[in-house]
Write a structure and sequence with these properties.
The structure is a single chain. This protein is of the alpha/beta class. The chain has a single domain, classed as HUPs (Rossmann fold), CATH 3.40.50.620. The chain has helices spanning about 15-25, 50-60, 75-80, 95-110, 130-135, 150-160, and strands spanning about 5-10, 30-35, 65-70, 85-90, 115-120. The termini are far apart. The mean pLDDT is about 90.
């Protein structure tokens, strides 16, 4: 039986940390879906469709990885995709408490699905999408944190926003 995992998030923007998790998780599952949250309470720089397109472009090298948008509850999307695993990346111990609580709630809502935590590689532990957005907004160099394509698109978006 093939194992499908989903890696949910807003990915606004997708970072090298996210890509690291995908590159290490892809060989562990038959199918890995990067699930981009469309409905979110977060104020995003990119629309959900833009985030899906950018993530798909950055992750195109992985044959068993697809990028899909979801709206509503992640567990409903997991059921729809017949996923048995939710993949969550951990950057630091401080992430664990929130992620553990989220895993418990997901388990209550969908007992047939387990959460797997994968720690980010050490060189990416300090990277977050919100920090990348803030650095870019303030004119800082984000080259070490995102794929060159993401830097280009984010720079273009911020230049337009300043005009």
């Amino acid at each position: 039986m093939a194992t499908t995992a989903i890696y949910p998030g807003t990915f606004d923007p997708i970072t090298l940390g996210h890509a690291d998790i995908v590159s290490r998780a892809a060989p562990l599952f038959d199918r890995l879906i990067v699930a981009v949250a469309g409905s979110t309470s977060k104020k995003t720089v990119f629309s959900a469709d833009e985030r899906v397109a950018l993530a798909a472009e950055i992750l195109a090298e992985y044959d068993n990885v697809s990028v899909k948008r979801f709206d509503g509850l992640m567990v409903d999307f997991a059921r729809q995709e017949q996923a048995k695993v939710v993949l969550r990346g951990l950057r630091a111990v401080t992430d664990f408490e929130y992620e553990f609580q989220l895993a418990g709630m997901n388990r209550k809502l969908m007992p047939e699905c387990d959460t797997v935590f994968l720690p980010t590689s050490e060189k990416y532990t300090y990277i977050s999408s919100s920090l990348v957005r803030e650095i870019a907004t303030l004119g800082g160099d984000i080259s070490d944190f995102v794929h060159p394509r993401i830097k280009q698109v984010l720079d273009e978006r911020l230049v337009r926003a300043k005009k």
